[in-house]
Design a protein that fits this description.
By secondary structure, this protein is of the alpha+beta class. It is built from twelve helices and 17 strands. The strands form three sheets. Strands 5, 6, 7, 8, 9, 10 and 17 form a seven-stranded mixed beta sheet that branches. The two termini are 32 Å apart.
Length: 446
């Protein structure tokens, strides 16, 4: 078993499931228990006469349980995995029962068929008729999007001309109406940016500077939409992403060769808006500080189908989305060979090197909001009521972390330089993980 308790708990869809799973870490609750190199299985006695059958695929961290829970993984899967991690002597090695072996074999068969089907589809080009129809649909959508962008550009000019002094008194409907028109124009990305504008308006002291920056960003997006045809293909791909015009996964597979190797999962951020959960997972290659970002979405509960445990190293094939500064990637198949990180993740030497990297990213993709960073030799320090990170040269940058997590980071460092990974937005840094003698992750929910 290559996982630890913290990594298992991090897979829980919510704190209640983690607590309930912890309550099942008792061998007496499991009439049947067993494990092999590739899976763990068990029967957990519930309220009914028939125990629930629980299986865990260790290679890809997949769960199966016969209980009626709609959470994934459910408390029984979490409890079984915690029991195998914390009390391995109670989970005997052997051959799986038929119900567990059949599930595991079906998973492998399905994965192999999916891989073969993807390879066959990628090898078969679209017919000329299909390509022509797709081009017509794209042109029609682009024309509608431009109409929405032109309308928003006029609205932005009007706002600046009349001034922003009365904006704090505007009701939410003032911005919601503009956002709704962008949705009608098939530019949902602009609608999200307008809603972000309203959030910044209510953000307290310094709101005016932040709002002006967001207005500039909106202007840059509308200007890019107006000049879409003249942009290089990578810049068009970046702009499409921010405008909410996604690239089909099939197109990613056809245009981008996969990158296969070992990846360290060094950070994860969960965000919820209107019951839509977003999971941002950051990966670093074994020998490279160039990151990969996996984006997953689930409605209702954060029951993501593929668990990605922070602080583990996986073997996986990724295909990067077309971009001027490739960052977002597509996970081609469930990861395999998951094991805890046992060596520091690669990092840059100081803030100067990180700033150079961020400047290159923004020069290639001026619409970027957030870039990742991995820096060695930094120390968290308390300054007044806030926190900063200080690098080896003595330079300091504002650290954006809740007090309990910032104090925990300081305790981990012991006042000594440590290696950190996180997200960088403007001048604000959010640390998602750190390395001292081992990996330490911070579960971040926004």
């Amino acid at each position: 078993m290559n996982l630890n308790s913290d990594q298992v708990v991090a897979l829980a869809p919510d704190p209640a499931s983690a607590k309930a799973g912890r309550g099942l870490v008792h061998p007496a609750k499991w009439p049947t228990l067993g494990q092999s190199e590739i899976m763990v299985w068990g029967e957990c006695q519930g309220s009914g006469s028939k125990p629930y059958q629980v299986s865990v695929d260790l290679d890809g961290l997949a769960f199966k349980c016969t209980c009626p829970s709609r959470k994934f993984p459910c408390k029984h899967g979490l409890g079984l995995l915690l029991l195998a991690v914390e009390q391995p002597d109670t989970v005997k090695t052997g051959d799986p029962p038929p119900w567990a072996a059949n599930w595991f074999a079906a998973r492998r068969d399905k994965a192999e068929k999916k891989t073969a089907a993807s390879a066959g589809k990628a090898a078969t080009p679209d017919s000329p008729a299909d390509a022509e129809a797709a081009a017509k649909r794209a042109a029609k959508r682009l024309a509608k999007m431009r109409e929405g962008g032109a309308e928003l550009a006029l609205w932005l000019v009007d706002q600046v001309r009349h001034g922003l002094a009365t904006w704090p008194q505007q009701p939410p409907a003032y911005f919601a109406g503009v956002a709704a028109r962008m949705v009608d124009a098939q530019v949902p990305g602009l609608a999200n940016e307008i809603l972000r504008l309203e959030t910044l308006l209510r953000s307290g002291d310094g709101w005016l500077q932040r709002v002006l920056g967001q207005l500039g960003r909106l202007r840059l997006l509308t200007e890019g939409l107006i000049r879409f045809d003249t942009l290089p293909a990578p810049a068009q791909a970046d702009l499409r992403a921010w405008l909410g015009w996604p690239v089909d996964k099939e197109e990613v597979l056809v245009t981008t060769p996969p990158v296969t190797g070992h990846w360290s999962i060094v950070g994860q951020v969960l965000t919820e808006r209107d019951r839509l959960w977003e999971r941002r997972t950051w990966l670093l290659g074994r020998d490279s500080v160039k990151p990969a970002l996996l984006l997953d979405f689930m409605h209702g509960q954060r029951n993501f189908p593929i668990p990605l445990a922070v602080g583990s190293r996986i073997h996986a094939a990724l295909a990067f989305y077309p971009a001027a500064w490739p960052q977002r990637a597509l996970l081609l198949d469930p990861p395999t060979q998951a094991e805890p990180l046992r060596e520091p993740f690669p990092a840059l030497a100081d803030f100067d090197a990180a700033l150079t990297d961020r400047a290159a990213a923004l020069a290639a993709n001026p619409w970027l909001l957030t870039t990742p960073f991995a820096i060695a030799g930094v120390i968290p320090v308390r300054r007044g009521n806030g926190w900063r990170l200080r690098d080896a040269s003595g330079a300091e940058l504002l650290l954006t972390m809740p007090d309990p997590e910032a104090w925990a980071l300081l305790a981990l460092s012991g006042g000594q330089p440590i290696r950190v990974f996180g997200e960088w937005t403007g001048n604000d840094l959010r640390v998602l993980s750190g390395w001292t003698d081992r990996f330490h992750g911070f579960l971040t929910t926004l």
